[in-house]
Amino acid sequence: MSITDTDTMSWNPKALDEILSNDEGRPVLFTNARILTMDPLIGIMTGADLLFVGSLIVGVGPAIVTAAEDDNAIVVDCTGMTIAPAVVDTVALTGGRGHRSEYVATLTPGNAPDFLVVPDELATDVPNAVATLISRPEQVRALVAAGRPVLWAGADVPGRATAPQAGIPISPDLTGSPRVGVWIDVKDFLHQELTADGRYDETRGGRPHAYQGRYWIDGDRIDYLDDLGFWAYGEFQGDELHHAGYVMKLG
């Protein structure tokens, strides 16, 4: 086992335990890191701190650690480490964003704490940091998604979120769901029937069965898989269903 492997395995175990058991909303502070914010205004910071509460970054920059004790923050020492966005805005990387407000996935106050912690020598820039995650995940000190650790010290975190199982899911029985029924757009052109067996059937301009297929509801999102093979989606907003430019209500 190399020295690097040993360092990885022993990286901040107490801090991980505190973060996983953090049910009191304590702030979490990753301190003394080189931070590649990807924000064109803030840029790259050295000897800097990243502070987040829950799923929101609230501060980035040097000297935040001075208030860590006052705020009862969980402190993660990142000496020798680089923090980089875990969600990469490739358009921004190539200079394709016209305004700072158009950047996504930056480590900026107000954004989600989705980030990587990687040794400095493996993260000269954001692409190298991401490449380390893909090719050498055992060297990643932390992968944090919306403030919750996914990887820590090169290993999966117990109870971590996992990707949805691949393949077409079985449609659940939606009997009694308030979203089952015929949804009609405000211009009375589109009628979309959602049935309890997870099937939909659209009438368009009086033409029956224009599109038919399966659907799945996840929170306020609805995904469609048409029998012709294409996917589409919609969103429930209050008592409305928004889909492909149509605004529908239950008939």
UniProtKB/TrEMBL annotation:
Gene3D superfamilies: Uncharacterised protein Atu4866, PF11512 (2.40.128.290), Urease, subunit C, domain 1 (2.30.40.10). InterPro entries: Atu4866-like_sf (IPR038646), Metal-dep_hydrolase_composite (IPR011059), Uncharacterised_Atu4866 (IPR020955). This is Atu4866 domain-containing protein. It comes from the Bacteria. It holds the Pfam family Atu4866. The lineage of its organism: Bacteria, Bacillati, Actinomycetota, Actinomycetes, Kitasatosporales.
